[in-house]
Design brief:
single chain; seven-stranded parallel beta sheet; Rossmann fold
Amino acid sequence: MKVLITGGAGYIGSMVCHSLNDHGHEPVILDSMTVGSEQNVPQFPLYIGDIADKNLIGKVIQEHPEIECVVHCAGKILVPESVIHPDQYYYENVSKSLELFNNLRAIGVNKILLSSSASVYEAKNGESVDENSPISPLSPYAKNKLMIEMILEDFCNAFEMKGIALRYFNPIGADPKMRCGPSLNNKSHLLSNLIRAAEDATFSMNITGFEWPTKDGTGVRDYIHVWDLAEAHVAALEASDSICKSESKFQKINVGGGTPTTVMEFIEIFEEVYGSQITTIKSPPRDGDTAGAFANIEKAERLMNWAPRMSVEQGIADAIKWNKKKNT
């Protein structure tokens, strides 16, 4: 199938493009290139522009009439930034997603796979969460994701559309073939900071929160290798007709590793993989921090016939390898 990927030159989007291509599908990319990189996806058709540009969407579909569905990865993603600039996040993420869905519907493209987030969950006690667990998004970013899900669900209920929201947990790593990988400039990302700390002896890791109800007091996360995450998109697209049956045209599905890892456990795994010790500083939790949660992935296994295959260690190793490649 031919698939349009918004934000297809970014971290997750580029992985999805390569995974689709590896499975015999044809990705077409729409990206503003605000943070994306053509180096991640040099071989795929690329349209540079805004997801809310009706004329551009029309041009893409006119030039690629075989496009059957859209993977919507585009959007602003930094939680701290969303707190400082909620206006930008509601406009860029929510308003423009609404425009995108309206324009796709008008053209007749009625299948949408949405990049959503596990940050929509309440996640108070480091517990396992499934798709029916309590919802309590704390940041404007997380609220954006929930709002876009709700818009898409309403479109699917009201119009002849089908939608799947994949709720990501914590993607790490790079394409195992080193075709694309993360930008390690995100200062709120644990793995990025660990790599920086390992390479710069003057940099210390600030660990926020040591009194959560978890095994060592630090927050619980669910890490998934980004390639497993990309493969989940392919599985969802290939099974979309059976997933979105007439009585349930919209589905939300957890995509995570399915196992809990505390922040300190992750640091210990990193130290073992990298081969050096990391200096850490204990700090109180930030506003909005929670104990975290990990994914119940039974629904993904059942509906998509998908399960993660790659380890946390492999995710860390691939991120380190990608960083060395980018710096040589």
